[in-house]
Amino acid sequence: MTRKFILLLSLFIVVYACSTDDSDDDMNDDDQIGMEDDAMMDDDDAMMDDDDASNDDDTPDDMTTGNLIGLWALTDIRFDETMDDDDLEFAQEILAFLVDRECYIVTFDFMNNGTVTTDSKANFIEVNAGVGGLDIPCPEESEMTNTMWTLEGNQLTFIDTDLGEETVTVTFEGENTFIVDGSAIDENNYDGAEAVFTRLELQ
Questions:
Q1: What is the domain class of 66-201 according to CATH?
Q2: Which backbone phi and psi does 177 adopt, to 5 degrees?
Q3: Which of 30, 70, 108, 162 is packed most tightly, with the most Cβ within 10 A?
Q4: Three-state secondary structure call for residue 121
Q5: Can you give the residue ranges of every domain in the chain?
């Protein structure tokens, strides 16, 4: 009887030891799987960070010189409506009227050789009062100038033949719109406003 009890006790110890080892192995396997999952999540996070970084690289803060090349036209003026400036409101209405008829008062044609042609009809606008209201024909005359230009960050510089420089701060809205101080375009009519230029065509 004693030998039988000893054999049963030994068998129980062996079975318990094996089951404990299996349990430990399962726990180790689970731990390893968890560590692998954590590593995969870390890799995914790193890839997402890389993607975010690449997206940031694709969105420059400022327009590049190459992207500015082309024909741009003054299409709108913006100002704080709380200013209650009748002159600016009238200038805005005139500009909107002419742009709607594809008559552009001021254009810049930026060339890739570093020159820019400015065409301005601002000084030749005539407002005629008629029976049907105001009549604003598109001016046939214009003032054209050819200068050099450079763009560094948001600083656009025009250099004339006498090496005189005029620098304006430009604010870009996407690739097809930029904004400058209105007084730099027409200090008589657009002072206190922002002049909005839109790309018309690529060269």
A1: mainly beta
A2: -145, 135
A3: 108
A4: coil
A5: 1-59, 66-201
